[in-house]
Amino acid sequence: MEFFLISLLNGISYGLLLFMLSSGLTLIFSMMGVLNFAHASFYMLGAYFAYAVSNVVGFWPALIVAPLLVGLLGAAFERYSLRRVHKFGHVPELLVTFGLSYLILELVQLVWGRSTVPYGLPEQLQGPLFTIYGTQFPRSRSFIMLVAVLMLISVWLLLTRTRVGLVIQAALKHPEMVEALGHNVPRVFMLVFGGGAALAGLAGVIGGNTYVTEPAMAASVGSIIFVVVVVGGMGSLGGAFLASLLIGVIQTFAVAMDQSAATGLQALGITVTEQTFGYELLKLTISQVAPILPYLFLVLILIFRPRGLLGTRED
Amino acid sequence: MSTTPSMTPAATSAELYRFKPMNVGRIVVWSLFAIALLVAPLVFTSSLAMTMLSQIGYLIIICLSYNILLGQGGMLSFGHAVYTGLGSFIAVHAMNMASDGRLPVPLVLIPVVAGLAGAFFAVLFGYVTTKKSGTTFAMITLGLGELVAAMALMFPGFFGGEGGVTTNRVYGKFLWWDFGPQIQVYYLIAVYCFVCTALMFAFTGTPLGRILNAVRDNPERVEFIGYNTQRVRYFAFIIAGFFAGIGGGLAAINFEIVNAADSLSTIRSGGYLLFTFLGGATLFFGPIIGAALLVFASILLSELSKAWLLYLGLVFLFMVMFAPGGIASLIMMNVRVAAFGKFKRLWGLYGGLLVTGALMVVGLAAIVEMIYHIQLNAALGPKVHFFGGELDTSSTATWVGAVALAVVGGALMEMVRRRFVRVWGRAQEEIEAEIKRKEMTA
What we know:
The structure holds two protein chains of two kinds.
Chain A: H1 2-32, H2 39-57, H3 59-85, H4 90-112, E1 128-132, E2 135-138, H5 139-161, H6 163-173, H7 175-180, H8 185-210, H9 217-232, H10 237-255, H11 261-267, H12 279-282, H13 286-289, H14 293-304
Antiparallel strand pairs in A: 1-2
Chain B: H1 9-17, H2 24-43, H3 47-73, H4 80-100, H5 110-129, H6 134-152, H7 156-159, E1 165-166, H8 182-205, H9 207-217, H10 219-224, H11 229-255, E2 257-258, H12 260-263, H13 266-279, H14 286-304, H15 308-322, H16 326-339, H17 347-377, E3 383-386, E4 389-392, H18 396-441
Antiparallel strand pairs in B: 1-2, 3-4
């Protein structure tokens, strides 16, 4: 029970962090049809900016400043690079963000070096928040959950209850019509791209000190969030939420499990030795398989439900 | 609109479909390619040149096979290393079995075995990946690439774990050769390179190759004329997997070792994508340039500078933004200008671009190199080697000088560039007008 509860909480906090990343990716994708390959790089930039800013003015101002900086960079990238490529089609758009991910990685290594940086938690977030069955649950993880939920609510309110949100939603479906009504659609796109990047930056600020801040952090979540977006259904925010939680929880549980198919068979009274057919496969423990579970999930979803969990589009 | 072929259908269709048994241009180009492959190791005899030529040889096959997906099918794959890498592994195991006498395959046929393995895995994985096109296809290939790369480390029995699997290519003779010396391996690679390039070029002319282009450009219309776009993509994917496997097999013969963490990684896949695009995905010969660049960048540039990935990323970004057809398309555009005799007026401007661009690049590179030096080896003292000279990272004068060089070079280059764009545009307009005039009189 203790293992179950703690793993569930850890899984949910990781899943919510994934959602903060995949929500921006999904928003950008459903608006502009651009798969932002550099999204995880913005996450990394958020962490590094927060590290630099918090050295000067402390963590709490950095929580606001770093995402804004990342958002500005994202908007500038959209304005001066992505918009130029837009006329060539979707594949060059993807390629230009792919090039950006290379560039950000190298620049981060140029400025902050190739090893981890000591980006620590502020005093208020250190230590446990509460204890269940003798195991402590850290404050930093609960803070991730809090920020993610607040962000989810504010993005939802922004999109459905404000004028800007309505224009964004309209530009999503009928960009020409919205343009004819006198709205500057390219600027809306720039705002959305910048906003999505800022959300990734925010995730970086709180993810960077809970986990580690290093140049490899972008690559470690990068492909997972693509899995989330495909599994949830391309362009579906609700789907992204569901898939993030699912993958977060599955991965957290799997990492802690030592059982393998061989031990399972032995529990059923079947003897498994090294001579048994497929022993290499049977002896793998669930924790060893954990890194590939999201991708297996992706393949299964694509075979049995190609439009994703909550997706509506078939292409 | 009045110059459409419908006006003179007989003449144009005859011109389009006229059978030319003696296509002189084509024979000349392919002979030159064959001669270049034959003569290259006689001209560049150093062992470094030998390694580079061998790598270029099999990378040409890999990049061309990647371009079947990217250039001809519009499929942006992030997992091409899966097929080359698995091809390499099968090749290594086949070689080990052959030297034990368990498998009667001579070394010259090992790449074919690897190719069949590549095709087999493409049949297996391609079924899932080619269900979608465009952006989703890209994401699925990325996911599958990660899946295979992570799984390879779980089965150390087959993939050799961290250390990889080693082999020995000298286990039998073919005619008089035992493929011990590098030169013999080079000629094996060269023969495969020529044959595979020819086969892939022939593929572009087959009905499947043509309909693949149509699937790239307008899938909806292809479905209307009765083709299953998914199946077309699937077949193309299998063919690309076959050639990728051949490339991987040759790589395994060349190095006699494969390592899962390296040869199956998504970084490797990204490299194929990057250089195929830089070479030029829109033209058939683009990836050949890309393969040569890949070897030059990864062997020479990485020796020269620690920041080479940064430069590469920048070049790639600007290439996507300003010349999405890659180097090959830049060459063809200039060839067209020259063919119409308008190249004279561009000489001066190209010279200007080159000089001002070089100024800016030297300035920027100096800044980057100095920052890298401070980051990585400040302990070695404040001096950096740079283009034969030395830079002192502790003096302000070097920094100011480098920044000034970059800014002045950049400003001058922008001035020349604007002029160049004007002149270039005018030349293109004149060429278009001339083409139209010829069509009218014809």
